[in-house]
Amino acid sequence: MIRKYIFGEPIDTEAVTAKIPAERWETSGKYLKETAAEEGHAFTCELGEDDRLYGLGENVRGINKRGWIYESNCIDDPGHTESKRGLYGAHNFLIVDGKQRFGIFADAAQKVTFDCGYTKRNQLTVTVTEGGFVLYLLENESLRGLVKEFRAMIGRSYIPPKWAFGYGQSRWGYKCADDIRYVVKQHRENQIPLDSVYMDIDYMERFKDFTVNEERYPDFPSFVEEMKEEHIHLVPIIDAGVKVEEGYPVYEEGVRNGYFCQNADGTNFVGGVWPGRVHFPDVLNPAAREWFGGWYRVLLDAGIEGFWNDMNEPSIFYSEEYVKKILEKHMPFRTDNADTQMRKFFELKDLALGLSNRQADYRLFYHQCHGQRVRHDKVHNLYGCNMTRAAGEAFERFSPEKRILLFSRSSYIGMHRYGGIWMGDNSSWWSHILLNLQMLPSLNMCGFLYTGADLGGFGADTTEDLMLRWLELGIFTPLMRNHSAVGTREQEFYRFGDTDSFRRIIGLRYALLPYLYSEFMKAVLEDDMMFLPLAFVYPEDTFASQVEDQLMVGSGLMIAPVYQQNAGGRYVYLPEDMKLYRMRGKDSFETESLPAGHHYVKAALDEVLIFLRPDHLVPLSEGGNFTEEVTTSHLRLLHYVKTAALYELYDDDGFSRDVTLAGHLTRITVDADGSICTAGASEPECELI
Ligand code: GLC
Predict the structure, then answer these.
(1) pTM for the full model?
(2) Ligand 1 atom nearest 78 alpha carbon
(3) Is the CB of 200 under 6 A from ligand 1?
(4) pLDDT for residue 338 is more than 60
(5) How many structural domains are present in the chain?
(6) Which ligand 1 atom sits closest to the C-alpha of 239?
């Protein structure tokens, strides 16, 4: 059951695709009470002592969001610490589970705050700042049912090409074709599977979107072709800001057609980002969106089949107006004595530290949105979403048959139909392995299924053990990419001593591909989640509802990765009997049957723990050096059969856009006596292992 209430005159975010009639709001509804707010609208709900809160997509802190205050206000902030209130995305879907069970979606383009028992431990307060919005309340008997209902209302999630489930190597610092050739050669020589290499900003000419530096890539289309022969897909980055430069056609066309965001006086707004002075395409204006999307064609025509959209919160390193202000403030300070002018010193320091991504800068420029002129801060959370939509819609035009890989840094719910997201600029910290795990189910609830974190950490120096442990989680995530920042320790797997362990763990990912792809596709096509908190599968189990560091991955397996330095194992909670496969790659493993309850489980640095539920199967392929080599003709089954087990394997050609479950499922059954039967779309040869 979904109820919809309209407040004021909302800007249509286009997050919801279902047609739902609006009802009249009563100030004291069944679930939420409207209360006085300093600014905008506030709604509260009393929480029972043990109530749990789920959702809010990309965010800091745990799976259960209770006990902190979160803000949906997309921001480029690389410090993903517990003290923050939000990250790059605005995902305003929250579930209350306990005394009452219901879902809230605050569909608002502006800032929304979720006080999840922070100000008062037993109270949830959702505050939508000034401006219209739509509030949806959802009811369902189960947590998973609530998510399905929400997901059906916001439309089918994005499906990438199958190769995008392969391993991707990235680093901000690869400068030219030879750098990339070297990366590929090292992977192939060391037999570390690889499907893609990412091209960060240095491939462009002075960071200008849709250009390729000709000195570094003398014949780009033939380089793309050369890589394809190696079964490598190149994935270039596209930034939101367009460099201000005479003679640069993207800039000139944008200016000529009035397609950039404007200041109040009608001149084009200037921000500073990587290319220096930039204008921001007004992607909220459908004509400008179509125009900006059209430029991706330059790279598609060169053979590119995947993109990552960045800096689209939008990130503004500085605005000219504010820099001027700082410089003016700075003048008297040059002659004053810092010792006696402490107050002034801190004033100056705050000015300088507050230079980037200022809220005040977001009030300086305007969009043309649904025929109205709208100040940016009122639609701030829609910018990255619409930049990615620009690309997604363009791909539907230019590549109607074939899926194109697309993911973004900033997002709003609704963008999940056009692309995935990566989790932004994390750090090489042990705590960020856990954060990666905790974000996965929350993102799935909000429709983002194609996702993953920068494995090994983006900022700060990684270590070999951190890299291995992170990978032991990363091999389960749809987007599996190793990415790091310029200036940090190089973290390609061949840089470490123990290449063999990396090879085996990545090899296991490729063996798991049929299962992971199948679970991903079933989750997309059935509006379901691929990564589930234990509470969603074992709702009656009070221990399960408290587990914050284990996840169910699809129908059959549970993961419990080690995320602490120097730990040779960890505590695991099993809600039911499970069979543990302790895997050292795809060919070497030990098994152990464990009864329901709490266990300390050992896990050596190169071991991946896979826990299988009773009467479930997980098919393993023979693996491969790239996704095209992975087939489902021979499957080895991880199995835990008590009475009879069934697995429904989904598979397709990996590139067609128009897919359904029908015609793509193979049923694999195993009886208690070990006999195997297959029926359906394919006839794999199966064996139990
Ligand atoms: C941003 C991105 C990061 C990228 C860098 C340079 O920080 O989040 O992934 O490497 O910009 O383009």
Answers:
(1) 0.97
(2) 7
(3) yes
(4) no
(5) 1
(6) 12
The alpha carbon of 380 and the centre of ligand 1 are apart by a number of angstroms equal to 20
Nearest CA to ligand 1 atom 4: 172
Strand segments, DSSP code E, in 222-327 are 233-239, 242-243, 262-263, 271-273, 276-279, 306-310, 318-319
Inside any domain, residue 12: yes
User: Is there a domain that residue 207 lies in?
Assistant: no
pLDDT band at 323 (very low <50, low <70, confident <90, very high): confident
Domain of residue 111 covers 2-154
Assess if residue 63 is contained within a domain. yes
Using alpha carbons, select from 293, 289, 309 the residue that is nearest to residue 384: 309
Q: In whole angstroms, give the CA distance from residue 597 to residue 261.
A: 57
Of the candidates 518, 447, 458, 504, the residue with the CA atom closest to the CA atom of residue 482? 458
**Ligand 1 pocket check for 317: Cβ under 6 Å:** no
Q: Cα of 310 to ligand 1 centre, how many Å?
A: 7
The CATH number assigned to the domain holding 122 equals 2.60.40.1760
Distance 512 CA to ligand 1 centre (A): 29
- Ligand 1 pocket residue status of 209, Cβ below 6 Å: no
Closest among 610, 595, 615, 400 to 516, alpha carbons compared: 610
Left (φ > 0), alpha (ψ -120 to 50) or beta: where does 654 sit?
left
CA of 234 to the centre of ligand 1 (A): 16
Q: Is residue 123 part of a domain?
A: yes
The number of residues making up the chain comes to 689
Q: Which of 58, 171, 200, 454 to mutate to test the pocket of ligand 1 (most atoms within 8 A of CB)?
A: 200
pLDDT of residue 337: 62
Ligand 1 atom nearest to CA at 172: 10
Gap between the Cα atoms of 426 and 433, Å rounded: 10
pLDDT at 221: 98
